[in-house]
Amino acid sequence: MLWTIAVVLIILWILGVVSGAVMGNFIHILLVIAIVMLLVQLITGRKAAV
């Protein structure tokens, strides 16, 4: 589930960068949160719930 959210956020972030949308800053914040969550998951070694 976390991987799916991260992929969706990355796609939205790329679309925001390309289109220059107003919501771009919000997408950047969400992307940073998603990356931090993924790093914590990888560091702690927990498996993602499917």
Structure described in brief:
The chain is mostly helical and 50 residues long.
Task: Give the termini distance in whole angstroms.
Answer: 6 Å
**What Rg is obtained from the alpha carbons, in whole angstroms?**
12 Å
**Coarse morphology:** elongated
Low-confidence stretches: none
SSE topology string: HH
Strand residue percentage: under 5%
Mean pLDDT: 74
Give the structural class: mainly alpha
Helix content: over 70%
The total number of structural domains is: 1
H/I helix tally: 2
Q: Quick one: how many beta strands? A: 0
Major beta-sheet overview: none
Notes on the structure:
By secondary structure, the protein is mostly helical. It has one domain (2-44). Helices cover 78% and strands 0% of the residues. It contains two helices and no strands. It has helices at residues 2-19, 24-44. The longest helix is centred in the last third of the chain and has 21 residues, at 24-44. The chain starts with a helix and ends in a 6-residue tail after the last helix.
